[in-house]
Amino acid sequence: MRTLPxxxxxxxxxxxxAKIVTDLxxxxxxxxxxxxxxxxxxxITYFAAYDAPNGGELWRTDGTAAGTSLVKDxxxxxxxxxxxxxxxxxxxxxxxxxVPNLGRELWVSDGTAQGTLPLKDIRAGSASSNxxxxxxxxxxxxxxxxxxxxxxxxWRTDGTxxxxWLLKDITPGPAGSLPAFLTAVNxxxxxxxxxxxxxxxxxxxDGTxxxxxxxxxxxxxxxYAPSYLVNVNGVLYFSGYASVGGRGAGSFGYExxxxDGTxxxxxxxxAIQPIGGSNPANLAAFNGQVYFSADxxxxxxExxxxDGTAAGTVPVVAPALPAAAYPRxxxxxxxxxxxxxxxxxxxxELWRTDGTAAGTVMTKDxxxxPASSSPFSITPFNGGVIFSATDNVDSGRGGPVTGSGxxxxxxDGTxxxxxxxxxxxxxxxxxYPGNYLVTGGQVIFRAVTxxxxxELWRTDGSEAGTWMLKDICNSSGSSTPDNLxxxxxxxxFTAATPxxxxELWRTDGTAAGTxxxxxxxPGSCSSHFPLILVVNGKLIVNAYTxxxxxxxxxxxxxxxxxxxxxxxxxGPGNGAILGGMIGYSAVSNGVxxxxxxxxxxxxxLWRTDGTAAGTxLVKAVGRANQMTTVGNTIFFVAADxxxxxxxxxxDGTAAGTxxxxxxxxxxxxxxxxxxxFKGKLYFAAYDGTDQELYVSDGTAPGTYKFKDICPGTCSSxxxxxxxxxxxxxxxxxxxSHGFELWSTDGTQQGTVLVADAxxxxxxxYPxxxxVQGDSLYFFTDGGSGWELWMAKExxxxxxxxxxxxxxxxxxxxxxxNSLFDAGHTMLMAAADASSxxxxxxxxGTAQSTFLMQDIAGGPGSSSPAKFAQHGKDIFFVxxxxxxGRELWVxxAFAQNVxxxxxxxxxxxxxxxxxxPGQQKDSAHSGPSARMKYGALAPALQ
Length: 941
Description:
This protein is mainly beta. It is built from 2 helices and 74 strands. The radius of gyration is 33 Å and the shape is globular. The chain starts with a helix and ends with a helix. The model is unreliable at 1-16 and 896-941 (pLDDT under 50).
């Protein structure tokens, strides 16, 4: 008898982990994952793709749906790391990715979440080095990256941090040499670069600074701006611009050049058009020769080939074949070279050549007549090619378009062997296939359908063998609940559904008890609630209707009991917005103060006690915003006639509503971050010289710059002000330490830098400052990504609570509101090495910080946020990867947690355990099936 499942089920029932309340928006998204940058390593294909819970991240597939999964949510939550330029390096692969604290930098992966790590922060801090154009040579990858001291130059890496370094600062200083066209030839790297103010020339490197040198000279006869670099049997061919025929010849243009890596061995192959140049382009290696397009001034752009000699540089078809102009996309496969060419009779079609005139023919007129099939993404496959093309023909004069649209095709070089593989999006509509990667006798690619969007497909070259690999972005639509407010036994919130748009809902925590309160804007249009407030036992709702605009409604929590309180700006014009970017609201003594909108007669400070008679304009002062209460006084920001934004105050009467002071008479001080601390107002303001921390007791003499944190004319830009029991916490930059955590006890001497989390001038950017008792929890980047930190009032110090990932990437979302004081513990969204951004809790120590529930399962992110307590429950918004962002609920906590998380064990819905490391079937396991032992810890304390 196995006791573990019984214990697990019993504890699960006792613990009552988080569960979804109801899926309000069940409409399939038809969203696109946009798979891109495919690379194969050890039989596994890795790629970038997007899904709703995780954004654009790193994925993998073994060619089956079950074997297609997220590798790692590098930028936790819906923020996208957008992996690019995936490049194989031995048993690993390199790529570039973006995370907010690092910018776009170089990453390495072994295909596991734990083994996917930032390799080097080339451009320190949050700025991006934008590594790209990766080329592997003998176990070393060369690439272009940009940083402040050297500009854009060539770097090299062996896949280790120590082995990642600047190859050479070719143009010393920040200007950079702007390298391009990195090409490997027999272990040597060739590329184009500019030295100083010279035109870009041909360079080479053996992988050492000393061996990184210019190949050509810098005279008119030496080629510059080399492009279309290609390796043909160990010889570099390229198109270069120089004096045709030698120095002083008097005619300049692009011609075909070759190089053995020496100055003397870099020579003009042939001046095909001595007057002006033949403009060689689209160079490709085939049968030991270089093939390209060129214009000799007689034939126009045609297909040429060269064996490296002037005599051996000839057009493939002579005299010119009118049917094969502008050859491009030259692709060698087996004994044939495929390319796209144009003529008046057939348009743009697929051609092929064996290197002879007789063997140069159009494979098939795919779009019959002068219409073009416009082939693209031509990729070698089974001795022929697989590609994208359209056979659509427009009948003209308003007639129908016939054909199958842009679909996947293949060709063996013969008319009968050139055929459409499958009409993925039936009819004349297109699936736009592309990003072909050949692996193990099959091709993985991207295609677009109306039903599933842009997703990953596979084909073996047959119609029956072509199908969608997996609908990665397959969740249902999100209702995205917001503005969660507890009132009279229910939780009220706004949510968006296809039937009603965004409207007012309520729930008792069950699916049956979740109902629409009122459809303010009938049908699918939305009422868009900026705020819901409770005052004097009434629910005050700011909502939009077509007949009133944005106005104030009062509700008893039912549809019939929800009525217009007052049409402040009569008619469809907006009268009031209680929250959001335009203004904020404050409550004092049972009265809500808010900004009125509309014409000057209604614009200013308003108040309501929840009755029509008690809803009126206090004073017309322009648009009031950023309100807060200090004692019985309402402070806010407003601009009256002739002045800009300054601090105002009100006691609720017109006479008692007045400007406190003009801090900056020459343009406004634009106060922000207003907060009550020890009976005074603290805020940040600009006096015309700098933006610093201010304090006010409501009088002009008592309003002054509290501390010049960044002395002189620089600004410390205080932000995120939050009041604790005995200290005010905020972030600021003193000019020496970057943006770090500061605190004050209300005295000059007690205003101090709490912790330089990222030592020196680098900023750690504290965010989501949240007070719990005498502690402050916050997210900040101490050099290893944004993590959870805690500060104590007693010691006025801060320390890292836990580095969830143990690498340089962020473990938390520093932008969305996802840190919550749950009374005796903190709830948050965090990501460790095996799970995406999921539900965690913390008691302020590493041991008491653990994963509560992996809602999305595996490396996927549910991104829990917008927490709100209602009675004995905590509600929040999360995405399990199937049902979109919906409302979830869990029991509130009765005590803190001091012990570590228990081992994580997955449980299927059928009660059977997963073997360690076994991939669970997310299509058949709901959120309760994804519960881990960490979720049981509260019940086992």
